Each structure stands twice: as structure tokens, then as C-alpha cells.
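This part of the workshop introduces the protein records we will be handling. An example says more than a description, so a record of this kind follows:
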Amino acid sequence: MVVKTMKSIGRIVFSALVAVSAVAPALALDYEAKPIMWCLQAPFRTAGALEGALVTGLISGPVDGGYHGALKGTKHWAGKFGDEKGAGQLAAAAPVFGTGGAIVGGTIGGFHGFGHGWKKGWEKPYSRWSYLTMEEK
């Protein structure tokens, strides 16, 4: 019985050695092609980029873009009404054109925020810059 068990263990060890010797050259080439640090950082960077893109693309980007779009739309149409800084013109332009600017700006801000969050989340995973749409100083 002991001899039979030793034969089985010997076969398993031999099979493992053959498999490792067959795979080792490919692993060695891959190791030379890519630094090991990149392989270790890739999962964290990917997770940070995905999280940054989702947070920035769904929350931060649309809020920021909507705010600036509403201001831009209101001021543009207040200027068309006569005075860009006039209180009456701003009050007349804000309900319609401010809302339209907020919708368009929020949509564009979402797309820009997704790209920004992915890029910054890959470069610096889980940093504050991967969650905010304002530029780094």
C-alpha cells in the first residue's frame, strides 16, 4: 500500500514539474516585458478608475456642469435681452434658459466627468482628484 501511494505522489510531483517547465518560459517572457509593480497595481488602479469614473460621471460632473451651464445660459440670454448684468433680464432669462443650460450642461458634464474620473482614478487611485471635476492645482 505504501509503495502504491508513493507511486501516485511521484506521478503528481512529476506532472507538476512538467507543467511548470512548460509554462516557465512564457512566464519569464511576460515578466521581462512588464514590470512586476504594474501587475500588482493594475487591479487597484482599475478599481480606482472605475469608481472615480462612476462617482464623477454620475454625481460630480453633472452637478458642476449643470451649475455652470445654468449660469452660462442665463447670462447669454440676459445679454440677448439687453443687459447681461441687469436684474430684470436675469430674472426673465433664468426660468427657461437657466433650466435648459442646466440640463445641457449636466449632460455634457456627466460625459466629461466620466472621462476625467477614469483618467485621474487610474493615475492616482482613490485620491480626491478622481472624485472631483475641478482641475488639480
